[in-house]
Amino acid sequence: MPISKTEGIVLRYTNLGEADKILTILTRNNGKIKGIAKGCRKPKSSLLSSSEIFAFSEFVLYKGTNFYHISQAVTRETFYNIRKDLLRLSYATYFAELAEAVSDEDIPSERLFLLLAKTLYYLSTENIPMGILNLGYQLKLMDISGYRPNVVRCAICRKPREEYNRFSIDLGGVICSDCGNDEEAFKISQGTAEAIKFLLNIEISRLNTKKIDNTIFNEIDRIARSFIQSHLDKRFKSLEFLDSMKDLNSR
Ligand SMILES: [Zn+2]
After folding, report:
1. Residue 24 belongs to a domain with what CATH number?
2. How far is the CA of 197 from the centre of ligand 1 (A)?
């Protein structure tokens, strides 16, 4: 049986039988995989902590016919801080659902893996406000998946401008004032295109180095979620739950 060793993050799991789990793991070397963790729900199992949601571990995997089998795991990070806070947990669940939607079985994406790993890390350390982390994660994830929002030139006339007044989800980018007023496109304020560019280009660790005012924040929030739902053609259940949690908390 082929063996592989890889870092991975548990995106989701389902219980199987008395003591097992089927884990959906985003791995660094093997892309997205489904792996059976035998006996991992027993209190003394060596796979116990690595089988928790969002756990980051070094896994040893055997490839079976339908599933991988997890033979060993060394937990690097459990992200306990995320799991103990319902709002953080809701964000992480949304991040994991997005990562699952854009990843493929057995096709590795180092960039996606690192994006998720770093985002969960900063979500757990509380150094970066969750709302900004969410915007940065969503935009970077779309970029990695081949849908980079275009904020450097008008999507219609292709000219680079100082400012743009709309963002078209269908065209995947900004529209300048010369190119008319597409009512379907989102109206954007001065500075919104610049802020999107910042969020796309900056390291996750530095996402909070630029002040983004509330109007611009809310515009990008609407654009990002609409962009994702339109291009990935999927509704995210975890996003609805996240919205209900956000209503109970402040940004
Ligand atoms: Zn134009």
Report:
1. 2.40.50.140
2. 18
Compute, in angstroms, the gap from residue 134 CA to the centroid of ligand 1. 29
On whether both 99 and 147 belong to a single domain, the answer is yes
In this structure, of 44-48, 63-67, 118-122, 175-179, the range with the lowest mean pLDDT score is 63-67
> Domains in the chain: how many in total?
2
pTM of the entire structure? 0.95
Write the pLDDT tens digit of every residue in 112-130.
999 999 999 999 998 899 9
Calculate how far, in angstroms, residue 178's C-alpha sits from the geometric centre of ligand 1.
5
Strand partners, 34: 24
The CA distance from 171 to 174, in Å, is 8
Dist. CA 244–CA 225, nearest whole Å: 15
Q: Classify strands 68-77 and 20-27 as parallel, antiparallel or unpaired.
A: unpaired
Write out the residue range of the structural domain in which residue 44 sits. Answer: 3-78
- Domain match, 135 and 178 both: yes
